[in-house]
Amino acid sequence: MTGKILVLGATGNVGRPLVRALVAKGEAVRAASRDGKPVEGADGVVFNILDPMTFPAAFDGVDRAFVMMPGGYTEAKALLPPVIEAAASRGVKVVFQSVLGVDADESIPYRQVEIALEKSGTPYVILRPNWFTDNFINYWKPGIDAAGVIAVPAADGKSSFIDVRDIADSAAAALTTDRFDGKAFNLTGPQALGYAEAAALISEAIGKPVAYQAIDDDAFVDNLVGAGVPEVYARFLASIFYPVRQGWTAVVTADVPTLTGHPARTVAAWVKDNAATLKG
Ligand SMILES: NC(=O)c1ccc[n+]([C@@H]2O[C@H](COP(=O)([O-])OP(=O)(O)OC[C@H]3O[C@@H](n4cnc5c(N)ncnc54)[C@H](OP(=O)(O)O)[C@@H]3O)[C@@H](O)[C@H]2O)c1
Fold first, then answer.
1. Statement: the pTM of the whole predicted model exceeds 0.90
2. Considering only CA atoms, which of 135, 131, 130, 147 is closest in space to residue 274?
3. What is the pLDDT of residues 22-46, one digit of tens each?
């Protein structure tokens, strides 16, 4: 593997540390975003998942690609297959960021995208991350700042939250060797924590009380819509807390160490490394 690697969502949560990791490994990277600017020392290319006219310039001349759907979109089954087709028709290996648990049922849209990739004939690796630890900043920080509260419909469900740096390291490994081709990996942190335990860690780091408040789906949707989130996305986010309440997101796997050769980062380590942002 000596060609270029295309990274979709290169300015995003996983994309940015992935570009950084690949550049550090000496790989030639093409970083895709809607404005096409360079990212972390890598050349940029314009890519819009809503506009297939942008796909050829992104995929021509690369031999591997990190494929994901940006946050905020829910139409995986409509948006992702044309991207996979653009890769497969050029023989580009795809490392696909899916979602933990979607293999529970073949009717789940993300699982159908995985199946399309498996049948495409192009080399692939599927990565299924659990809930990102980074959501405590990206999604829940406004509640922490305003009221010292993380209010989500998780009941007492635990999750093995994963640090985006570990997803990026896993993707970098999958992109730079063929040892993992044709396989799927369930990416988790090293332990399952409840939201009250995570709130306590954050509270200690920022020196302010932070409490977990278990709320129901409707209250959660009302809060998000009040904060400007489109209702359809708020309802989607509420729906994905069902597996949390069922205890399904508490599973811990060894897939991060298998892919990266290092242990997955703890929530405590993430809180320490992100304390300044959590305080800010
Ligand atoms: N958050 C979680 O807990 C979690 C857990 C498991 C799986 N996932 C999955 O992970 C994915 C999100 O990953 P992430 O958080 O790394 O992504 P993200 O940060 O939300 O993605 C944003 C990136 O996508 C780009 N982008 C935005 N709109 C775009 C468009 N229309 N066309 C092309 N690029 C666009 C952004 O660049 P520009 O704005 O610069 O264009 C940016 O680079 C979702 O599919 C989600 O289902 C999330």
1. yes
2. 135
3. 999 999 999 999 999 999 999 999 9
